[in-house]
Amino acid sequence: MDAATPALHDFLRPGMAAADLPDLHPLLAARELLRAFSTLFHGGEEVVMVRLLVLRAIGERGDAPDWSPQELREHFAYLDSIKFDTVLGRLRENDLLLWDGQSQRYRISPVGRQALAAIGMLLQFNRQGDELAYVTAQLAAGQAVGRIRADELQHLLSRLNELREDFDQAVLSGSEHRIQQAASTLQSVWRWVEKGTEIVQAIAADADLDAATHRVAQQIGRAQSAMLRQASLFQRALNQLDRHRVHLGASGLSSSDVNRYLRSLDIDGLSALAVDTLGRTVAPAFALAPIALDVAEYELVERERQAQEDATLPPAQAAPESRQAPVSEQDYRHAEQWLAQLAGLRDDVPLADWVPQDNFAISAYRLSLLGLLGDPGAENRSGVSASIAQLPLQWRVETALEPVGRCEVAYLSRGRLQPHAGGHGDAGSAADAAEPATGVAPAPAQDPGSGRSTSGKAATPRSTAKSRGRTREGKPVPADALPAATEPVEIP
Fold first, then answer.
1. Which end of the chain has less neighbouring CB within 10 Å, N or C?
2. Which helix (H) or strand (E) is 156 found in, with range?
3. Mind listing the pLDDT tens digit for each residue in 115-130?
4. Residues sharing a CB contact under 8 Å with residue 360, sequence separation 6 or more, in sequence order
5. pLDDT attached to residue 242
């Protein structure tokens, strides 16, 4: 064990030792037996066959287990003498054959006898589907001598689960061939399933076994019960397929017979059946392949999908009660900034110098706010728009365009911003009456952040000087209450 340990450590990660792996302990304990199998199965397939042939022939003579060299040469006279001596030497060097120096005879070692017994049982179950029989036989042998372990039962449980999964897949496939094949497999393993049931019952009745072994035995019992129910499932599936089987007239043949016949043919036979049976249709050159594919996809897939979709409206529901509707918060930063700039205006300035700022959206927004100047309804409002409307300013717009070339504005209507001649006052100034506004000015618009576009409207003519001496109700006011004017104003 120590001599092979360094080679085994080469397969482990740094810091890991073979003694720290519990799953490796049984293999290390049976190293001598495993070395016997390594001796037998090392090399090519031909030399392995010759070694097994020689070892089995030596072990089959039970009445006289000892062999002399002359007896071996006579028995294996059909083998090449040099290669036969090489095989004997390898079996002897690896302790599969023992040489008795006193009697000058060969004898199979106990390790070689164990290897032969294991190989002999394996050869008894070499047909397809006998793997369950082999595992069951191993368990039966262990149960007979009182040596049953949980890991040995796991092999039987794994094979039962694999068979049950294969049977379920065969039923779900709906293929008659697969279902019949699965039913045949179940029939072939039925005897071993019943034998395994007896073994599991004997194991479960043994009170000396550990809890893990009992638990695995119970799982095996449940898996066997599930497999026994598969027979009824197969018969039910075959009956359903029989109802859909197509019979070919009065010939007595059905689609299953045709399917079975076609499965029995090889590639050449299938190709021979297709000779002179396939025709080529004329491909319409006027139909585009992509368009034809789209139409076919709609007719075959989309139409069926739309028919299956549920397009009914949901049932009517009462609208939820809300005492306060949500109101989006407005951003008046640009309007307040424009108000501050207009409030500090004292001289006539062109629109092209003051309106453009930052980008086109803000420039259009600033231009639209100028339409609020002189709005008579601003007295009943509050906020930035009312403050702009009450500014002592007026603006005039001409039909000509003036180039700008900045702030994303190429051209702007030519116009000017003018303070009222009388300073701060209401919208009815004398200057408005003397020189009415001409041109068209944009109408008020929302903040550029609200996503609404600006639009223009005709400028509202200001109140003439005749209205300066009266209040909104038409009553005259005292003369000393009127604002000073550069020109004398007649007060009615």
1. C
2. helix 150-173
3. 888 888 888 777 766 7
4. 407, 408, 409
5. 75
- DSSP codes joined into one string, 54-118: HHHHHHT--S---B-HHHHHHHTTTS-HHHHHHHHHHHHHTTSEEEETTTTEEEE-HHHHHHHHH
Give the start-to-end residue ranges of the domains of the chain: 5-124, 131-241, 334-481
Question: Which residues does residue 108 pair with via DSSP β-bridges, in sequence order?
Answer: 97
Nearest to 365 by CA among 478, 302, 285, 453: 453
Q: Given the DSSP bridges, would you call strands 97-100 and 349-350 parallel, antiparallel or unpaired?
A: unpaired
- Distance from C-alpha of 189 to C-alpha of 133, rounded to nearest angstrom: 7
Percent of the chain with pLDDT over 70: 80
Question: What pLDDT band is residue 285 in, cutting at 50, 70 and 90?
Answer: low
Fold agreement (5-124, 131-241): no
Q: How confident is the model over 232-262, as pLDDT tens digits?
A: 888 888 788 777 777 777 777 777 778 778 8
Give 362-414 pLDDT, tens digit per residue: 989 888 888 888 888 777 778 888 888 888 888 888 888 989 888 998 988 89
Tell me the fold of 5-124. Arc Repressor Mutant, subunit A (1.10.10)
List, for residues 434-455, the tens digit of each pLDDT value: 333 333 334 333 444 343 333 3
Quickly count: other Cβ atoms within 10 Å of residue 284's Cβ: 8
Task: Give yes or no for a contact between 393 and 418, defined as CB atoms under 8 angstroms apart.
Answer: yes
Cβ neighbour number for residue 67 with a 10 Å cutoff: 17
Q: Where are the alpha helices (DSSP H) in 244-284?
A: 255-264, 267-273
3-class DSSP state of 373: coil
- Name the nearest CA neighbour of 189 among 150, 158, 163, 219: 163
